[in-house]
Every structure is written in structure tokens, then in C-alpha cells.
Amino acid sequence: MRRLALLPILLAAGCALPGESRACTLVGAESGVRVGWRPSDFAAGANGDGATARLCVRDDCVERAVTARDPLGALSVRLDDDAGPATVPVRFTVTAPGGRILFDDRTEATLKRSAPNGEECPPVVWQAALRAAPDEGLTRN
After folding, report:
1. DSSP assignment, residue 31?
2. Kind and range of the H or E element at 105?
3. Rounded to whole angstroms, how far apart are CA atoms 112 and 129?
């Protein structure tokens, strides 16, 4: 009976009882490349009209509006879970209304292996995180 009383605590900690297989936590993750930025860095260049951020990894692109009211800026392009290890081309642009380019930089991102639930538990994903800053370009986060 005592063993059963400890079971919820052990499972919550990602542990298993002696002689039993390892229990895994259930943290989810996806393979991909993420670029983060401070919205105020780019919204000012758009003269308060907002701008459009676009992130491309290989040939896959996503975009979203950028305004000074955003608490933070980020875009992610999802990759197949078997994407790595690899180096992938990345391009990040921010365009003001009317087409004026506020930011345009390219780099190569190295995907790093991540196993958020432990090495013996799924998922295993491949990720890269970059930061975009007007004075620095795209840098590793």
C-alpha cells in the first residue's frame, strides 16, 4: 500500500519504482528555427504603422505583423523531427508599409539536439534559436 501512495510523487518527478521501466515526463517540443526580437527595434522604423516580419528557413516561410505594442516578437518555422543534425539557411526580414526594408539578414543556423523529457524519452527534436537586432544582425540566442 505504501508503494502505491508514493507512485504519484515518483511519476511526477519523472522517476520509476525499482525494477520498473523509466517513466517519462510529457514535455512537448517541435523541431524548428526560432527568431526573436524586440518589437520596438522595428516598429519605430515603420513610423507607427506597423511592419511585417518574415522568417524563411530553407524554402519554408512564415510572417506576422510587428507593432510597438507587442510584448515580444518571435517567429518560428517548424521542421521535420528528423531534420538534424544539420545546418540550415535562414533569412529574416522586416518590411515597413510601402515596401521599405527595415531589416534583412541571412545566416546559417546549426540545429542542436534536444530531448526535453530526458535522453531515454520522446520527443527528440532539432532546434536553433536566433535573435534579430538592427545593429547586430541575426545572432545566436
Report:
1. -
2. strand 101-110
3. 9
Q: In degrees, to the nearest 5, what angle opens at C-alpha 74 toward C-alphas 70 and 89?
A: 150
Answer yes or no: is pLDDT of 13 > 60.
Answer: no
Under DSSP, the state recorded for 82 is: T
Which amino acid, 22? Answer: R
In the numeric block, which cell numbers belong to residue 114?
Answer: 534536444
- Predicted confidence (pLDDT) per residue in 43-93, tens digit: 665 555 678 999 999 999 999 988 877 888 999 999 997 887 899 999 999
C-alpha count within 13 angstroms, C-beta hemisphere, residue 104: 6
Look at the chain and count its residues. Answer: 141
Residues 6+ apart with CB under 8 A from 43: 50, 51, 66, 67, 68, 70
| Pairing mode, strands 32-37 and 125-133 | parallel
The continuous run of DSSP H or E covering 108 comes out as strand 101-110
**Of 57, 63, 62, which Cα lies nearest the Cα of 79?**
57
Nearest one of 76, 91, 95 to 137, comparing CA atoms: 91
CA-CA distances (angstroms) from residue 68 to 38, 44, 46, 136, 139?
9, 7, 10, 20, 22
